[in-house]
Amino acid sequence: MFRHAFRRLPYFSSKTLNRSFSTSKARHANTDYDALVLGAYKDGSFAETITKEIPSSTQETIRQNLKLSNAKGKFGEVRVFYGIAEESSNVPKQIAVVGLGKKSSDEKGEVDLSEALEKARHAACVRVLREQGAKFIGVDPMTHEHGAAEGASLGLYSYDSLKSKKNQRPEVKFGRYGESPSSELSELTWETGLIYADAQNFARYLAETPSNLMTPSIFVENVISKLDGLKNVEIHVRDQGWAINNNMGAFLAVAKGSTEPLRFLEIHYKGGKEDEKPLALVGKGITFDSGGISIKPSQNMAAMKGDMGGGAAVAASLYGLAKLQVPINIVASIPLCENMPSGHAIKPGDVVKAMNGKSIEIDNTDAEGRLILADAIYYTSSTYKPHSLIDLATLTGAIGISLGEVYAGVFTNSESLWTQLSNAGKTTHDPFWRMPLHPAYKKQIKKSTVADIVNNSGRMGSSCSAAGFLEEFVYGDDIEKAAETDVVPDKIRFAHIDIAGVMDTNDDSGYTTKGMTGRPTRSIIEFARKNTF
User: Fold this and answer.
1) H helices of 22-163, where?
2) In a 3-state reduction of DSSP, which class is residue 253?
3) Span 38-59, average pLDDT
4) Which of 389, 363, 134 is nearest to 281 (CA)?
């Protein structure tokens, strides 16, 4: 359902650009494949499902060739063999054998799920075969079929549609080789792996697209196209008039510096009971961040096309959860605009009033993400009263200095919410690290002589004070009042996830590709899928 019309651009639409994703069915006839990725343990054994598909004589030939090629069987080691399968068999003539290391299990013989998934992701080295000209690759489920499907799909992702045809990577398809292993009986299967990866690839695509081709309006168009036809999904596209009527002075202040019209994208997924409180997801959607009047240095400013990585991850997570048809209710809010310098742009020293009535002094126009999130968080939490609200934002460079590219930083008022997020991150190997959300950091944002709070606290503890700023806009009892009475109110579980450090990467190996990462999409999907609220 669309409450407001949006401008549809005919050139470089989602259908034009979005060709980076390899689609694949769960099962194909093994005769269809022209290449195979096969996992082998250090002792020379293969997965039971594969031994049913590959003749014993071919298995022995593979072992002999591994020995001749001086393969040690260590994890991640790859050897590519050609024409070693018998002519009468259905085994592809091109086989990439990847080392799985030693078989691992605990004293009870049980394999750790997180380890099995991550081994399969890395071992599904389909990129090796793509470089060898393979067009349709069979993938051994290896240690876990969900992980193998994720690894293959994530590893094949590429964003080169804007390049000339001769510079584009060849399009490759893949599918599962052999019958489904025992993990088919679990909640995570080959199909769920494809959905998780497709969602992250969508977030990658949104964030990687140049900002002139991913304006707020085009972002909305792409999300609508991706969600089209999914059950239990409603989409509301809001415009400037709606933001004015809702007194979103902070959001409007950032948007007015650009000629591109703002959009507030609101998505509802209704998979739970009608009276159940929703999970709320809020994503920062700055489609380009110049810094505004407090303009950024020109070096690396091009990467600021990805400053809507939080909004991209939220939209992609909701897509994945809707595809999975999880039995919960979700409301997602993504405020979208550009942060540009102009004669209309906000200036340092200006004061704006947010939707909840708090006045904000603008100390630095490059601290704009917290301004648009302030109104989005208050609107979402006050309108829908969610049991939990999680915002995702490329908010502070300081979080990257603290945690690098490994962890996304989580600031939360809830032990249970932290535990659930942490467990999800371990399963997906897209981890979180808990950072302090403490009232002391809020002193830094209350130094203004002319407004209730200021949008910039200085360098010291800047990621922590930014999280405290956002918490000021979560609807509910005042946290300071609770501290005075020593009574913890019944409040919304809140988590702010700062993803500035994990927004992009230079790594181009395994299932990681250079550029925008789409993180932590799979972790948010796993968190919402796994937990009942």
Assistant:
1) 48-51, 56-68, 113-123, 126-131, 145-156
2) helix
3) 88
4) 389
The Cα 356–Cα 509 span in angstroms is 46
Question: Cβ distance 516 to 208 under 8 Å?
Answer: yes
Structure confidence at residue 72 (pLDDT):
84
Left (φ > 0), alpha (ψ -120 to 50) or beta: where does 300 sit?
Answer: left
Alpha-carbon span 503 to 376, nearest angstrom: 21
The verdict on whether 370 is a catalytic residue reads yes
Sequence spans of domains, the chain? 27-188
Q: 366, 409, 404, 403: which is closest to 390 by C-alpha?
A: 409
Using alpha carbons, select from 367, 389, 199 the residue that is nearest to residue 283: 389
Handedness of CA 126, 129, 135, 139 (dihedral sign): negative
Instruction: Please confirm, yes or no, whether 434 is among the known catalytic residues.
Output: no
- What class has domain 27-188? alpha beta
What is the spatial distance between Cα 185 and Cα 270, in angstroms, rounded to a whole number?
A: 26
Residue tagged active-site, from 370, 442, 519, 529 = 370
| C-alpha–C-alpha distance, residues 517 and 514, integer Å | 8
Provide Rg for the chain, Cα atoms.
24
Q: Which two tokens stand for residue 433?
A: 């690290």
Q: How confident is the model at residue 182 (pLDDT cuts 50, 70, 90)?
A: low
Say if strands 94-99 and 78-82 run parallel, antiparallel, or are unpaired: antiparallel
The pTM assigned to this predicted structure is 0.92
H/E stretch holding 37 reads: strand 35-40
Q: Which residue has the tokens 């349709």?
A: 136
CB burial of 410-424 (b: ≥16 within 10 Å; e: otherwise) equals: bbbbbeebbebbbbb
Dump pLDDT digits (tens) for 132-156: 999 999 999 999 999 999 999 999 9
Nearest to residue 121, comparing CAs of 80, 79, 152, 158?
152
Which of 42, 270, 296, 434 is flagged as catalytic?
A: 296
Nearest to 514 by CA among 292, 227, 303: 303
Q: Who's near 135: CB < 8 A, 6+ residues apart? A: 34, 170, 172, 173
In the predicted structure, residue 78 carries a pLDDT above the cut 60 = yes
**C-alpha span between 324 and 446 (Å, rounded):** 43
C-alpha torsion angle, residues 383, 247, 468, 432 (rounded to 10):
60
CA-CA distance, 495 to 395, in Å (whole number)?
A: 14
In terms of Cα–Cα distance, which of 146, 379, 341 is closest to 256? Answer: 341
Place of tokens 């918490």: 471
In the numeric block, which tokens belong to residue 269? 């997924």
- Listed in sequence order, the DSSP H helices in 164-308 are 190-208, 216-227, 240-245, 249-255
CB 359 within 8 A of CB 463: no
Whole-number Å distance between alpha carbons of 458 and 443: 12
Could you tell me which of 489, 451, 444 has the C-alpha nearest to residue 468? 444
Q: Phi/psi of residue 238, each to 5°?
A: -100, 150
